[in-house]
Amino acid sequence: xxxxxxxxxxxxxxxxxxxxxxxxxxxxxxxxxxxxxxxxxxxxxxxxxxxxxxxxxxxxxxxxxxxxxxxxxxxxxxxxxxxxxxxxxxxxxxxxxxxxxxxxxxxxxxxxxxxxxxxxxxxxxxxxxxxxxxxxxxxxxxxxxxxxxxxxxxxxxxxxxxxxxxxxxxxxxxxxxxxxxxxxxxxxxxxxxxxxxxxxxxxxxxxxxxxxxxxxxxxxxxxxxxxxxxxxxxxxxxxxxxxxxxxxxxxxxxxxxxxxxxxxxxxxxxxxxxxxxxxxxxxxxxxxxxxxxxxxxxxxxxxxxxxxxxxxxxxxxxxxxxxxxxx
Length: 327
Hints:
Layout: H1 26-36, H2 46-60, H3 70-83, H4 101-114, H5 119-139, H6 149-173, H7 179-183, H8 185-201, H9 203-208, E1 210-213, E2 219-223, H10 224-256, H11 260-264, H12 269-289, E3 295-299, H13 305-314, E4 320-324
Antiparallel strand pairs: 1-2, 3-4
């Protein structure tokens, strides 16, 4: 009979600081993010999260829980990663976690694309969307420096105002074009809003920098240049993440609304739209998160001059620095 690998045999040398799959390849990153963004993670209880937290913190200190297998260790790591911030270690706000992206975004995006014809509806759903984005951007920020309530409030108001103004402006411009083009207004507004919301919600990183390390995780300082690269990569992946769910359903809905079924049951329009968006997001969310490595890097020569000097003086052999880009 095949012997089951027992906990006592589990090596303490497994590197759980890094994802299970090779992050230098797109396929490895995609497997990682399909696990991280799994919507089932939001159903985990506080007890399950606490259990995973204990397994991981114990393992990092060289303590292996009795009976623990390697698969159980990796499962605990992904439960831990889905709920706790990589830099601060804090438990993240439930709706701000990446596992909440698909159910939250499919509902909000579906409604934005169903109720886009009147100004109050545009105002309401763009405000809901930007409020949600603000929570996600704050929850998935990079770095461990605290952000004040004042900074958070200013960032939220400016990001939301900019995004809603963009949506209303675009809506006004499309009043005299075909209905199909009108359906793409929410997508254009979301794309423009991401360019405003993410940098504003993470402005502290741009002002003060994010922690950078060498390849062995030794902290070398804080860099604003690294923050610029991190935030621009997140903006690109978020816009692309929204693209399939906001570009494919308009064509399908435009076709379906001419059919007898939706003419008889017009109230079915919103649930169908939400379902279509959800189907797209289940794949788009992890695949677009995987476009860039989570542990991003850049050459020392691209950092601020004073930081370059400091690193070359204290760590002369270091050519590349690493940082968490956020999500």
